[in-house]
Amino acid sequence: MADSGGTDEHDKKDDVERSKSEGKELTKEEKQRLRKEKKQQKKHKEKKDDKASQESGKENKSASSAAAAPQLPTQTVKVVKRLPEHIQVDNPEVLKKLAKKLERQQTPVHGATIKIPLRSDYGYKVSLFSHLHQYSRKAPLTQQLSIPSTVIHPAVVRLGLQYSQGIVAGSNARSVALLHAFKQVIRDYTTPPNEELSRDLVNKLKPYISFLNQCRPLSASMGNAIKFVKKEISNIPTQCKEEEAKSKILNCIEWYINDKIILAAKAIAASAIEKISDEDVILVYGCSSLVNHILFEAFEKRRKFRVIVVDSRPRLEGREALRRLVQRGISCTYVLISAVSYILPEVSKVFLGAHALLANGYVMSRVGTSQIALVAKAFNVPVLVCCETYKFCERVQTDSFVSNELDDPDDLIVTRKGKTHLENWQEVPSLGLLNLVYDVTPPDFVDLVITELGMIPCTSVPVVLRVKNVDQ
């Protein structure tokens, strides 16, 4: 059937061609056949052109990808960094850059070059946090320094040792101690000949900051304080005398401590007291100096309330908060974080401190804070975060993995009489102890942030940062 149909169509085409050659007029049926054939030929050509264009496009893409591939060693390809360089500890190239940076910050002393040592990591790390530093308190960085000939100021060496051993802890305490150390450095500073104070003093502070960062990673509040000090030093005019310039810088540092930390705490306490009513049961976590100050002020204002102090291992900072509150005569209850879900039904408000407030509204604080905020949200208990604006940070973070701090893993070992099962954990190559310092709390779990500017939601952090940048 198919063969007979094909021969009929072929015969019809031959008849049309004969009639054309003989000059005869075509019938209507023959004209319609010609039109259909022309349309089919056009469609066939268009399909061929589309296929050819698609094949040429594929060839161009393959050629462009081959051209973009690093065929030659001289070609460089832009790669998106997965992490900032200062926390890519698992990358040997980044460690080499850090070592070179520390070498550049060395200065000649008595014909020899004294450099800042590179602190080595300690123990096996969990794979998710292998890009972070993990140090041991048993091997502080000061052991590798020759104190008489080092370029590091003694006040900075002492402060770094206090940081690494946990003697100075807390965002406010660390920031105030850093600024006081800088004041001592500036007092002892003398401008070298043929140098400007505004440039040389900033370069003088760089090895000190690198040393402190290796003793313990700098907090967000410390970073903001360092930026302020550098900015004030750079603004000193060249014609200003040395003693006058040093006094200006010292006054600016004293103003920063007084205005951004001390007076800010008083303003926050005045606003937070309005949220504390009689017969309230307030839950606090850890030992926040700002939250303790608020509770002290509320107790002095004759507010009748009770405090539940929640604590967690291994730091057990809540014991220090409990001791301070009990000394003032405030009624307290002490529980561990594992029992927070049992104690929350009787809680009326949750007051939390903050390590930093990020630009996306997330609250960075002591590890365990997000768990307490989550459980409080489940029980419909309001969560109030108390934080000074100098802790506001332009960094954006949504998890605790990318940017965090690892503390000494030996702190997790329970020291009791006799031997513990984790005593020689370093000898087990597949065993890693994780001692996280911070976590981040989503803004959905925080009802209010109390600052010296007033009570704001977490989403207003970018507005505060924008206003601060305009003022500066």
UniProtKB/TrEMBL annotation:
<feature type="compositionally biased region" description="Basic and acidic residues">
    <location>
        <begin position="47"/>
        <end position="61"/>
    </location>
</feature>
<comment type="function">
    <text>Acts as a component of the translation initiation factor 2B (eIF2B) complex, which catalyzes the exchange of GDP for GTP on eukaryotic initiation factor 2 (eIF2) gamma subunit. Its guanine nucleotide exchange factor activity is repressed when bound to eIF2 complex phosphorylated on the alpha subunit, thereby limiting the amount of methionyl-initiator methionine tRNA available to the ribosome and consequently global translation is repressed.</text>
</comment>
<dbReference type="GO" id="GO:0005085">
    <property type="term" value="F:guanyl-nucleotide exchange factor activity"/>
</dbReference>
<dbReference type="InterPro" id="IPR037171">
    <property type="entry name" value="NagB/RpiA_transferase-like"/>
</dbReference>
<dbReference type="InterPro" id="IPR000649">
    <property type="entry name" value="IF-2B-related"/>
</dbReference>
<keyword id="KW-0648">Protein biosynthesis</keyword>
<keyword id="KW-0963">Cytoplasm</keyword>
<dbReference type="GO" id="GO:0005829">
    <property type="term" value="C:cytosol"/>
</dbReference>
<comment type="similarity">
    <text>Belongs to the eIF-2B alpha/beta/delta subunits family.</text>
</comment>
<feature type="compositionally biased region" description="Basic residues">
    <location>
        <begin position="33"/>
        <end position="46"/>
    </location>
</feature>
<dbReference type="GO" id="GO:0048513">
    <property type="term" value="P:animal organ development"/>
</dbReference>
<dbReference type="GO" id="GO:0005851">
    <property type="term" value="C:eukaryotic translation initiation factor 2B complex"/>
</dbReference>
<dbReference type="InterPro" id="IPR042529">
    <property type="entry name" value="IF_2B-like_C"/>
</dbReference>
<dbReference type="GO" id="GO:0007417">
    <property type="term" value="P:central nervous system development"/>
</dbReference>
<feature type="compositionally biased region" description="Basic and acidic residues">
    <location>
        <begin position="7"/>
        <end position="32"/>
    </location>
</feature>
<feature type="region of interest" description="Disordered">
    <location>
        <begin position="1"/>
        <end position="73"/>
    </location>
</feature>
<keyword id="KW-0396">Initiation factor</keyword>
<dbReference type="GO" id="GO:0003743">
    <property type="term" value="F:translation initiation factor activity"/>
</dbReference>
<protein>
    <recommendedName>
        <fullName>Translation initiation factor eIF2B subunit delta</fullName>
    </recommendedName>
</protein>
<comment type="subunit">
    <text>Component of the translation initiation factor 2B (eIF2B) complex which is a heterodecamer of two sets of five different subunits: alpha, beta, gamma, delta and epsilon. Subunits alpha, beta and delta comprise a regulatory subcomplex and subunits epsilon and gamma comprise a catalytic subcomplex. Within the complex, the hexameric regulatory complex resides at the center, with the two heterodimeric catalytic subcomplexes bound on opposite sides.</text>
</comment>
<dbReference type="Pfam" id="PF01008">
    <property type="entry name" value="IF-2B"/>
</dbReference>
